[in-house]
Amino acid sequence: MAAAPSRPRLGLGVRRRRLVMAAVPTYAVAIAFLVVFVFPFVYMFGTALKPNAEIYTFPPRVLPQHAVWTDFLAAWNDAHFSRYFFNSSVVAGVSAITNVIFGSMAGYGFARLRFPGRDLLFLLVLVTLMIPNAVLIVPLFLMMKDVPLTDPGGWLNTYQGIILPTAVTGFSIFLMRQFLAGLPRNLDEQAKIDGCNLFQIYLHVILPLSRPALAIIAVFTILTRWNDYTWPLVAANSPDLYTVQIGLAGFVHTHVAAWNLLMAGAVIAAVPMVLVYAVAQPYFAQSLSALGTGIKE
Amino acid sequence: MRTRAAPRRLASGWAWPGIARAHVQPHLEAYAFVGPALLVLAIFVLLPMVYALWVSLFDYGIGGSNEFTGLANYLQALRDQLFWKSMGVTSIYAVGSATLGLAWALGLAVMVTRRLPFMGWFRVVYFVPSVGSIVAVATVWLWLLDYNLGLVNYWLSLLHVGRLPFLQDPRWALGSLIFIGAWIGSSYNLPIFAAGIESVSREQLEAAELDGAGAWQRFRHVTLPAIAPISRYAVIMAIIGSFQVLGLIDVLTSGGPENGTLVTIKYIWQQGWDFLHLGYASALSLFMLVFLLVVTWQQLRAGRG
Q1: Based on CB atoms within 10 Å of each CB, which residue in A110, A241, B8, B99 is the most buried?
Q2: Distance in angstroms (rounded) separating the CA atoms of residues A29 and B67
Q3: Interior CA angle at A250 toward A248 and A252, to 5°?
Q4: What is the pLDDT of residue A292?
Q5: Per DSSP, what are the bridge partners of residue B60?
């Protein structure tokens, strides 16, 4: 700071020009990577708007000459993406609600309450984060097939079968606990002195304060459940229960060269989550700092 | 004392066993908060873990024909060349896509955390591949890398390179998957690294600058050590994620050509659901779990030492 006045002062124009010149390579790289990350989505959309005849034109074009919406209609109606879309929405929506409710309750319990076995139980929650889903699919499949008091087939091909294994995840609990750990205790202690019971404190003090954490849990749950592939593939073997991902993966094998239809399906699978991400963008930075504090502990 | 305690206990309607009364009853409310979530995790994560062990001891077919065979599935797995080949393929994929993806993410994170206009905007858009579902992303790459009509091969033909068998040749196919995995991984890890870089203390960086450290030295000796814990977490998650790439494989290669991209999760799927050897599939998935735990433990130990 003290050295600044002794430096020869450049005119504002020269200085700004130097700054801009120094930043040019950075922006060139930034734009190059923008193309790398976004171009596949542009091409996805462009192909989905092409009429059949334009898929095989040479040289290939990124965007159609005559954009049509017929591919989307064909994918939505004839290829049953409307059904898959509905199933994915149910799975993602219900999972988000159950994760917010039970994840926040458990996170509150672990962050604020004292009870025997608390640390051991929380360690178990962390252990569940380490287990890859791939290890669980065989036993979960057999359990869902033979749920007591159900018809043969159990809960395979049911919404509860798809949803229950991730109705609340260790991640949701962990996130809520980390968030509350960073929140001063005096508000809920004041409520306790005022004679509130634990449930009233949770409902009227903790939940309103935790809105950012609840939003992150909801958004992350929606993203992961919508994009989930392995468990829904195991749990749903009838097209009526396919999620968008399972429907699209099957569509790839049944419509091998119908690229415009495939890309329309891909847009239906991808775009809703891009929109969710765009809307929920402000919460993402917070969630990552929450993760950061978790690692450093 | 004892005679007095007894009526009070009965008045509550339910006589609690001594230990439970002392340890559980005062905390019933707390258990009510954590109970539902723990029940879900116990039934759908911990119980299946134990059940996987149990199932792996049987010659388990879906039709109900199951016979206790002890460790036969494990002995078979040890001799199963295709399984070990799949572990090799997965390891190459994991190391390749994690290394490339994390290095790529770190480089971009350094760039987007520079205090320049629009960098925040780039940072937001770079994340899009991570939210656009893996199956949709795989489908568009299938189209881009198509041998005859794909845009990438068309561009290469403009450069007089000729068509490349991106998904038709076993080695090219694994290379293509590594690239796509790194593409997604770099997008996903970029904000994690960026948050790490931003949390590095300004004072330390300024002190290093006063000591005459250049930009690279500041990065190497201040920033990198500061983000080491986050990096270790990212490496562990990237490797665990690499072992679960079923969606990418199913769309792009189905494990072919010539099993060149047969990752372990795909092989487990084939054993379990194509051949209905569920006991064997369970044994294989436990092998995979042990392998991942060892890798994770190594990573954590390397961080401490």
Answers
A1: A110
A2: 61
A3: 70
A4: 45
A5: B66
Low-confidence ranges of chain B (pLDDT < 50): 1-13
Same domain for A173 and A46, yes or no, is: no
Chain A residues close to B112, C-beta within 8 Å: 30
What is the reported pTM? 0.88
Residues contacting residue A141 through CB under 8 Å, at least 6 positions apart: A156, A234, A235, B272, B278
Contact status, residue B101 vs residue B181, Cβ threshold 8 Å = yes
Question: How high does pLDDT run on average in chain A?
Answer: 87
Q: Where are the domains of chain B?
A: 21-55, 74-304
3-state DSSP assignment of residue B162: coil
A8-41 pLDDT, tens per residue? Answer: 555 556 777 777 777 888 999 999 999 999 999 9
Instruction: Tell me the residue type at A152.
Output: P
What was the pLDDT predicted at B12? 47
Which residues make beta-bridge pairs with A278?
A: none
Per-residue pLDDT, A288 = 57
Tell me, yes or no, whether A108 and A254 share the same domain. yes
Smallest CA-to-CA distance from A229 within B94, B162, B265, B84 is with B265
Residue B162, Ramachandran bin (φ over 0: left; ψ between -120 and 50: alpha; else beta): left
Please enumerate in sequence order all residues whose Cβ is within 8 A of that of B173, keeping only pairs 6 or more positions apart, or say none. B166, B167, B252, B253, B256, B257, B260, B261
Task: Tell which CATH classification among 3.40.50.300, 3.40.50.2300, 1.10.3720.10, 3.20.20.140 matches the domain B74-304.
Answer: 1.10.3720.10
This complex has an ipTM of 0.87
Q: What are phi and psi of A67, to 5 degrees?
A: -70, 135
| B21 three-class SS | helix
Interface test with B, best of A20, A39, A138, A155 (most B CBs within 10 A): A138
Contacts of residue B137 in chain A, CB cutoff 8 Å? 40, 266, 270
> Sign of the CA dihedral A150, A153, A154, A159?
negative
Q: Which residue has the tokens 């891909």?
A: A266
B6: contact with A, CB 8 A cutoff: no
CA distance B257 to B267: 14
Of A132, A136, A229, Cβ closest to residue B48:
A136
Q: pLDDT of B77-92, one tens digit each?
A: 999 999 999 999 999 9
The shortest CB-CB distance from B244 to any of A115, A127, A132 is to A132
Residues 138-197 of B with CB under 8 A from A: 139-144, 146, 149, 151, 154, 183, 187, 191-192, 195-196
> What pLDDT is stored for residue B22 in this prediction?
67
Predicted confidence at residue B5, as pLDDT, reads 43
Report yes or no: A274 at the B interface, CB cutoff 8 Å: yes
